[in-house]
Specification:
By secondary structure, this protein is mainly beta. 12% of the residues lie in helices and 33% in strands. The protein has one domain: Immunoglobulin-like, CATH 2.60.40. The longest helix has 24 residues. The N and C termini lie far apart (111 Å).
Length: 208
């Protein structure tokens, strides 16, 4: 038998071309759908602000010494008052300590620190309107927070005297003021002769 070859007519070829073109259009449409933007919505919280608190302590000494003894003999003493104020925005605890230099007089100097207030503030270092706190903090009298030698007074914050005492810690707040009366006396001890000492008294506040 002879094989019969059918010739495709021009119309048939045009139909196939048309179907192919439609398929390409459909594929292009699907591909285009993938690039459309999605629906979206946004919510925002604006005007957020941040500020650190402050710890601020000051006194009324204007750089002057509160105590001074010269050419002293046993039994000589000096006293003075200093007003310490807090203006920080954070509550804070306060410790007292000092730095001692000199040639060995500090073991022979007795130091008393009394905490209290002024009825009206006098000139610096005067104690004319000073009133001690009514509390007997350490069993040494009203308002006394330290009684010992200058040598025994703490040299740094870590061992510092907690105000007014470790068992009665106070949190200072802005606007708070306390007055401290310092008194130093030379012991009746011949070993104190020809010695000297210099002292810096410090109050340090840290937020609690």
């Amino acid at each position: 038998m002879r094989a019969v070859h059918r010739a495709h007519s021009p119309a048939s070829r045009r139909a196939k071309i048309s179907l192919t073109a439609l398929a390409l259009v459909a594929i292009g449409a699907l591909a285009g759908a993938g690039t459309w933007a999605a629906f979206s919505a946004t919510s925002a919280s604006s005007a957020n602000s941040f500020a650190a608190g402050t710890v601020a302590l000051s006194d009324n000494d204007s750089g002057s010494a509160v105590l001074s003894l010269s050419n002293a003999v046993p039994g000589n003493s000096d006293s003075g008052c200093i007003m310490v104020s807090y203006s920080g925005s954070l509550t804070a605890s306060v410790r007292l300590y000092g730095t001692t230099t000199g040639r060995g007089l500090d073991p022979y100097l007795d130091l008393t620190v009394t905490r209290g207030s002024f009825s009206s503030a006098p000139a610096f270092d005067a104690c004319t309107t000073f009133t001690a706190d009514s509390t007997d903090y350490i069993g040494a009298g009203s308002g006394v927070i330290y009684s010992g030698t200058l040598q025994g007074f703490a040299d740094g914050y870590a061992a510092g005297l907690v105000d007014p005492t470790a068992g009665s810690l106070e949190s200072w707040t802005s606007g708070e003021t306390h007055v401290y009366k310092l008194r130093v006396t030379v012991q009746n001890n011949a070993s104190a002769q020809a010695k000297n000492a210099s002292q810096t008294f410090s109050w340090e506040a840290r937020n609690s």
